[in-house]
From TrEMBL:
Signal peptide: none
InterPro entries to which the protein is assigned, alphabetical: AAA+_ATPase, ABC_AA/LPS_Transport, ABC_transporter-like_ATP-bd, BCA_ABC_TP_C, P-loop_NTPase
Protein name: High-affinity branched-chain amino acid ABC transporter ATP-binding protein LivG
Underlying gene: livG
Pfam families: ABC_tran, BCA_ABC_TP_C
Record GO biological process: D-alanine transmembrane transport; L-alanine transport; L-isoleucine import across plasma membrane; L-valine import across plasma membrane
PANTHER family, alphabetized: AMINO ACID ABC TRANSPORTER ATP-BINDING PROTEIN, CONSERVED COMPONENT OF ABC TRANSPORTER FOR NATURAL AMINO ACIDS-RELATED
One example GO MF annotation: L-isoleucine transmembrane transporter activity
Composition-biased stretches (Polar residues): 257-267
Top-level taxonomy: Bacteria, Thermotogati, Deinococcota, Deinococci, Deinococcales
């Protein structure tokens, strides 16, 4: 579905992402992992149009989207969430989800000022699209509530609904389980599986290795902005370069100071990026 070729970006003299060639297959869950500062969120920012690459190419569904702006990328079918849940706490759950649908509307400022038929049609379309997204994330019954009144898990689901309401083909989740307890994390994993079973493709950046190893069909590993491995969880967990770069060698105690062998730790999902 999405392919990047020799993708890179420089900030001054620093290569935040360098020469990454990788793919995100349709209908699967791809996890992007790596140590802090590996370039994971920057990689997301590149493919979602928030950053313009200094080298390489991005193709989505056969179209070159390398130089498209963010709203153009969204209109092509790529939506994302952020590390920090970006919702409007004082607005209702439904109103938050409607915001995400506005990229699909046609009415302009004049339509809004004059309350034209096109504006009314777009508002109704946004409402319908938002309710469909809320139904997918299990929040239809809470649509009337202020978003800030929901639990942490509920607010995460609102953020996902905002992305889903733009009707994406590819959903990018940036640390979706951040701040969630184990039970909430399990619920989130179930939701992501349901979305993919419903036809969505998902790519996620995540620090909780239990989620990554239990959820991902494939894993892309970045280190110092470069790809060092891509494969199934089983393949990646045995890759010597991943064990050394991502978790640190056993001799050095591991990145997080583990005293158990790094490979075992990765397979069990017991370390953080």
């Amino acid at each position: 579905m999405l392919e990047v070729q020799d993708l890179g970006i420089r900030f001054g003299g620093l290569h935040a992402v360098k020469d990454v060639t990788a793919s995100i297959p349709a209908g699967q869950i791809t996890a992007i992992i790596g140590p802090n500062g590996a370039g994971k969120s920057t990689f997301f920012n590149l493919i979602s149009g928030f950053y313009q690459p200094t080298s390489g190419r991005i193709q989505f569904a056969g179209e070159d989207i390398t130089r498209l702006k963010t709203h153009e990328v969204v209109s092509r079918g790529i939506a994302r969430t952020f590390q920090t849940t970006t919702i409007y706490r004082e607005l209702s759950v439904l109103e938050n989800a409607m915001i995400g649908h506005r990229v699909r509307t046609r009415a302009g400022l004049l339509d809004a000022l004059l309350r034209t038929g096109r504006e009314r049609q777009d508002v109704q379309g946004s409402r319908d699209g938002a309710m469909a997204a809320l139904t997918r994330v299990g929040l239809a019954a809470q649509a009337h509530l202020p978003a800030g009144a929901l639990t942490q898990e509920g607010q995460k689901r609102v953020g996902i609904a905002m992305a889903l309401s733009s009707d994406p083909k590819l959903l990018l989740l940036d640390e979706p389980a951040a701040g969630m307890n184990p039970e909430e994390t399990v619920n989130l994993m179930a939701l992501i599986r349901e979305l993919v079973a419903g036809g969505l493709t998902v790519a996620l950046v995540e620090h909780k290795m239990s989620l990554v190893m239990g959820l991902a069909d494939q894993i892309l590993v970045l280190h110092h902005g470069q790809k060092i491995a891509q494969g199934t969880p089983a393949q990646v967990s045995r890759d010597p370069a991943v064990i050394e770069a991502y978790l640190g060698s056993h001799a050095h105690g591991g990145q997080m100071g583990q005293t158990t062998p790094a490979e075992t730790t990765l397979q069990k999902g017991g370390a953080h990026a």
